[in-house]
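Hello forum,

I keep getting stuck at the same step: I have a sequence, I want structure tokens, and every attempt I make locally crashes halfway through. Rather than fight my setup again tonight, could one of you with a working pipeline run this one for me? It's a single chain of 503 residues.
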Amino acid sequence: MEIEAKNAILRGISECAPENGAGEDEPQETILQNFLPLRSYGKLADPKVFLITGGRGSGKSELFRVLTSCSGLEHVISDKDRKRYTGLKKGEFLVGYIATGAESKAFPSQGICDELLKKEKPERLASFWGGLVCAVLLRRFADDMDVKELADRYFGSKLREELQNHGSEVSRWWKEMDAQREKWESFLDKADDCLGKKGKSVSIVYDELDRICSSYGDLFSYIRSLLDFWFQHNNRLANIKTKIFLRSDLYKAKALQFVDASKMRAYHLELSWDTLSLYRLLVKRMANAGIERLTVYLQEVPGLLSGEKDSAIGYLPGNSEAAYECLVEKMIGKYMGKVPKRGVSYAWVPNHIQDANGQVAPRPFLKCFVLAAKAMLEHADDIAALEADRILAPSRLQGALGEVSIDRVRELVNEEYRWLQNLINRLKGKEMLMEREEFLDYLSPEHWQEDRDRLPGKNSFEILQALLELGIVMQSPDGRINVPELYLYGFGLKRKGGIKRPK
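Reply #2:
Ran it on my machine without issues. Output:
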């Protein structure tokens, strides 16, 4: 293959993920072409399933965007699942809460939510969530005279107007809604009946709940009350449903206890990715990158792409794992070096970016290939040295792993876990494995001052448990603490026998 063709292919791969790798940063016009529905997404067609959990970078926000802005379930579930759920209605997905972006202005800010919990008991938050649901419905059906009439009957025109036009200003409607729970519950019942008669249905969808307030402990008051609210209402209401997106570590936290939590399995979908799904996503993005030479490169592997390009969703990847193994061998070589002991290329990237819980997220997976492709383009000699149709040198993927780790930790600190920076500063330069007692000393809350209220625990043991649930650390059989490759470089840690980064 000519150098020019390899450069074109590498440029396409280098653009297979948004600048920061986050699905929420995808341009609206390309989100469907880059979106890969997993087989497990079929559960979303089940109206009983309302809780969707996943780790950071697992695709929660991208799925949220597809549901709320790209025709709901149309491109998410298969024809087989449509037939399975025979009573499936084509309903709308309305944003019930989000903390960032233009749509967030319709909901209370973090500061307002902080203040509310200073004044009110957590058990009263049902009226908070009930008020926001009513506000969402009133905004969506503002021109529906039947819904308006119902609202005026149960709220009065003044409160209806406050909810409809000032839903983000909780102080304007909180007291009345809290004092009139029977009325807004009755409104939801009647609105549900009204939508049913019109042949309509809606799902209220929530994301970024980890940003609803600044205190880690207060998060659970809001999340617990929301889950409890919908556990009660999702079975009661036939045409007003919900989908709640939540980080896995928050769902698993001991602090999250709510009524009938033990029964949540039937209502729950955990987002998880296997190796085949990760490569299918990469190929879908490569095929739809808009670079003809890259698409041709993929089409040279039998079974890799399925059919012709669709105007809405682009090229679809095939399901044969053998085809993806063939592609990786074509791109990189069968092994990550000249001998098998270096590792099989197909498994190498997923194995080295899994967290301590064995979970692999698509975001760091894509970043590995994106960063490796960029490095190849910056080193023309590397491209010239490649054999035949190969386009990626194993050393560049190894180097990308370090950058992925640094980016991953930076994202955690900047966006969700600011308290981690203090720990990173103390651990920098240390060597893993580490004795458990020594590691616990680094976790003592006395080391944190300004961020103490953001800590996921009151003592070292609770903070360690949170780190274990997040998949940042793991405990070896002899009790020592270890850190997976995904976080090792980002934390500035060392390990004997670790992967050497290329100069």
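The domain at 417-495 is CATH 1.10.10 (Arc Repressor Mutant, subunit A). If your local run keeps crashing, start a new thread with the error log.
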